[in-house]
Amino acid sequence: MGKLYIVPTPIGNLEDMTFRAIRILKEVDLILAEDTRTSGKLLKHFEISTHMHSHHMHNEHKTVENLVKRLQAGENIALISDAGTPAISDPGFLLTRACVENGIEVDCLPGATAFVPALVNSGLPNDKFVFEGFLPDKKGRQTRFLALAEEYRTMIFYVSPHKLNKTLAEFMQYFGAERPVSVSRELSKLHEETVRGTAEEVFNHFEAKPAKGEIVVCVGGKK
Questions:
Q1: Cα(181)–Cα(118) distance, rounded to whole angstroms?
Q2: What is the pTM of this model?
Q3: Beta sheet of 193-198, edge-to-edge order
Q4: Going edge to edge, which strands form the sheet with 52-54?
Q5: Which intervals hold domain Tetrapyrrole methylase (predicted)?
Q6: What 3-state DSSP class applies to 23?
Q7: What is the structure's pLDDT at 65?
Q8: Any idea which of 37-46, 86-95, 112-121, 205-214 has the lowest mean pLDDT?
């Protein structure tokens, strides 16, 4: 029986790719990539010629059964996302679950993921935290905020740049203007930045200077 490898890829800086990740990607029979065009650039940089198949949120329900059969037949497969660790707000959970249910070994390599450096950079308590990922766009958004208003642990969110100011305004509305917030963007990249302060202070900063790039927001819990 084959093995499924979950392989993290850099969130920005290519130097964050591990030696082990490169070796695994060269040795497996197939690489599943969220976007083969994006991953193609990464594989070319590290001289990896392994065949790729597309595996993303729109097709993963249809492809899991066939991939399990290939693994059961002895193929070794690696799963990568566009950046960071697969299955963390990215495709990967369905295939991992199917492998576990069918007795197929899953090996997740340690490596890059955006929320860990954002949490450590924030200066907020990190002995206990809750990862929320992306908030619902419409249905259930208010309900989620009302529940999180009582959360005592540091909360971590992934936020699109065009939704950042709206989200910061909602933090003020539901958590209070004085709630501590840390916004990290473009982690590991040339224009990396972390802005810390109260929800109101951070909101005012990005009202004056709209954010660009990939964003992770950490919010202090209720005292």
A1: 11
A2: 0.92
A3: 129-133, 154-159, 215-219, 180-185, 193-198
A4: 52-54, 30-33, 77-80, 3-6, 105-108
A5: 3-202
A6: helix
A7: 93
A8: 86-95
Within 46-195, where are the H helices?
60-72, 93-101, 115-122, 141-148, 164-175
Q: What is the pLDDT of residue 16?
A: 96
- How many angstroms separate the CA atoms of 68 and 146, rounded? 40
Overall size of the chain counted in residues: 223
Report how far residue 183's alpha carbon sits from residue 174's, in angstroms, rounded to the nearest whole number.
18
Q: Residue 56: pLDDT above 90?
A: no
Q: Which residues have a Cβ under 8 Å from the Cβ of 197 and sit 6 or more positions away?
A: 180, 181, 205
pLDDT value, residue 170: 98
Q: How many CB atoms lie within 10 A of CB 147?
A: 11
What are the C-alpha distances in Å from 107 to residues 3, 23, 49, 96, 99? Answer: 7, 14, 21, 10, 11
* Location of structure tokens 């802005």: 195
Residue found under tokens 């890829």: 9
Encoded tokens for 60? 């993963």
Return contacts of 18-27, CB within 8 angstroms, 24+ apart: 18/109, 18/110, 18/111, 20/109, 21/109, 21/111, 22/46, 22/48, 24/78, 24/109, 25/50, 25/78, 25/80, 26/50, 27/76
